[in-house]
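Notebook entry, structure prediction.
Reason for the run: the old model in the group folder had no record of what sequence produced it. Starting over properly, with the input documented here first.
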Amino acid sequence: MQLEVLVSDPSKSCIVIFEARRYSRLSRDLAVEAKSAGIPVTLVTDPFCDWGRDLVDEMFVVPTEFNQFWESTAQMASLANLLVNSVFLELGPKVETRMEAITQLYSEFTGYVGKPINRPSQLGSNSA
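New structure, fully documented this time:
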């Protein structure tokens, strides 16, 4: 978690918290700190969360019970994809330029399956 957002300019920051059953104290504590810092908070949670309404600016309540053994948070993932897509649409073409640069850095430092790393190897250069 990147906590520096708590000391960021509240007019240029926001926090989105995803929380499901067996709620983490950390999520609630983060929402409390963000609220006291004036940072807008969005909470994506299930219908059973009892702490969110008093602490966040907006709350997306997503159903998680579908008559299965375990609850499913798959709908939260779908909502996250839609939210990220909406942010990218709002930001416009500069997002694509940034993502291409990040992809290039990832390719150079980590690499992808089937694509060799282009940097010369440092292994064996200190042989005695």
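Summary: The helical segments are 25-37, 74-91, 94-109.
The old model has been moved to the deprecated folder.
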